Amino acid sequence: MNDSIEINDIIRKFYKPVDFSGDIFYFFSSYYSKFEKLVIGVEGASGSGKTIFTTDLATSLSKNKVVVISLDDYLIMNKEEMLLNGIETRYDWRTRDKKRFLEDIKTLRSGKNIKKPKQDFSLEAPSNEVEIIEPKPFIIIEGNLNIADVCDSIIFLFAPDDVLVERRFKRDIQKSMHNNSLRENARISLGFYHSMLETYAKEADFIFDTHNNLLYKKNSV
């Protein structure tokens, strides 16, 4: 499988390597500690390690100062509804309640509670459940869509294509599907990532290779 050259071109043109002495989260906690309030976006492909990275980043910033928002909580379509609407992938904003998401982030920024939708990810479908989220100095938004317009800082995660496919396969193995089907779904998802999200890596302050543990900082940051 050939990796897209776009992410490598973006890094080569607009970014420089960062020496973080082995502890990526110590680096980010030190970098972001100079801000009193901040909305941080963690973007990347399926299998890039967004959820684990976001959890560890929140811990490094002190959990009592951080609220984490997942874009997947704003799903408004199951797979059948996506097919009926001609939508092939969740790299498409139409699968999320963007209006509600934007209103919630605005409300949290203003210091007020929100009622955030809460999804059952095992069903991969919208839910009527909600949870009360209190505002915190740091808001971390995790997802596979471009959210640069609502964030103060973006961290874009990536890995080699074969690694992304294998990670997604291992994550989805519990589903009642044939192994070949799982890997094929992962490859299809990867194609949508390259065509719909990867180009927005150039809007990130940082790009992090989660496989090789390499960090790049935008030249202008």
TrEMBL record:
InterPro entries: P-loop_NTPase (IPR027417), PRK/URK (IPR006083). GO terms for molecular function: ATP binding; kinase activity. Residues 39-207 form the Phosphoribulokinase/uridine kinase domain. Signal peptide: none annotated. This is Phosphoribulokinase/uridine kinase domain-containing protein.
